[in-house]
Amino acid sequence: MKKRYLTTALMICLTAFYGGLKAQENNKNYDEKLAKELNADEYGMKVYVLAILKTGIEKSFSKAKQDSVFKGHMTNIGKLVTDGKLVVAGPLGKNDKNYRGIFILDVPTIEEAKKLVDTDPAIQSKLLDVDLIIWYGSAALKETLKIHSKIEKRSH
């Protein structure tokens, strides 16, 4: 008899527990065409590579040489954007870790990201160094570039 009460109690608990779990619902705003264009998974996410730019080992360049290298750095950023490989770039504030900026690259592997950052004159000249990390984020991130061009009064 005791076993029967335990079994019944267990069944009630399990029913209450599983009945209380809400199944994941489909998003009513889901746009399948846009999701495919952005290579989004079922959660609207995708894999990118986060590049953390750091102060490099080169310290002997003149101001003119540094300016020239950073002009090439900015040109390279523009090329990566045009090629659809760079979705976010920007400098970081002063910090004690020598972090200088970030890129979010629209590639799925560290190897592909390495090939892209190796085209940067600031990396090539060792003025900057880079750490590359896989990052999983919103596939909609790429859409910010379209919006940015509408709010940017002056370009670099």
Using brief descriptors, characterize the structure shown.
YCII-related domain-containing protein; single chain; 42% helix; alpha+beta; 156 residues; 4-stranded antiparallel sheet; Alpha-Beta Plaits; Dimeric_a/b-barrel; 22% strand
Word description of this protein:
- This protein is 42% helix and 22% strand.
- By secondary structure, it is α+β, with helices and mostly antiparallel strands.
- Strands 2-3-1-4 form a 4-stranded antiparallel β-sheet.
- It has one domain (39-151): 2-Layer Sandwich (Alpha-Beta Plaits).
- It contains 6 helices and 4 strands, in the order ααβαββααβα.
- It is elongated.
- Residues 52-127 form the YCII-related domain.
- Keywords: Signal.
Entry summary:
By secondary structure, the chain is an alpha+beta fold. The protein is 42% helix and 22% strand. The protein has helices at 2-20, 32-37, 63-82, 110-117, 121-124, 144-151, and strands spanning 45-55, 86-91, 99-105, 128-138.
Helices, strands, pairings?
Elements: H1 2-20, H2 32-37, E1 45-55, H3 63-82, E2 86-91, E3 99-105, H4 110-117, H5 121-124, E4 128-138, H6 144-151
Antiparallel strand pairs: 1-3, 1-4, 2-3
Keywords: Signal
Family: Belongs to the YciI family.
Pfam families: YCII
Count of helix runs: 6
- The top-level CATH class is Alpha Beta
Number of domains: 1
Distance between the termini: 81 Å
The largest sheet is:
4 strands, antiparallel
CATH architecture: 2-Layer Sandwich
The low-pLDDT segments are none
Mean pLDDT: 89
Strand order, sheet with most strands: 2-3-1-4
How much β-strand is present in the residues? 15-25%
Q: Considering the protein shown, what is the CATH homologous superfamily?
A: Dimeric alpha+beta barrel
Q: What string, H for helix and E for strand, traces the elements in order?
A: HHEHEEHHEH
From the helix content, strand content and strand pairing, which structural class follows? alpha+beta
Helical amount among residues, as a percent range?
40-55%
Rg result: 24 Å
Number of strands: 4
CATH topology value? Alpha-Beta Plaits
Protein name: YCII-related domain-containing protein
Organism: Pedobacter caeni
Domain YCII-related: 52-127
InterPro entries: Dimeric_a/b-barrel, YCII
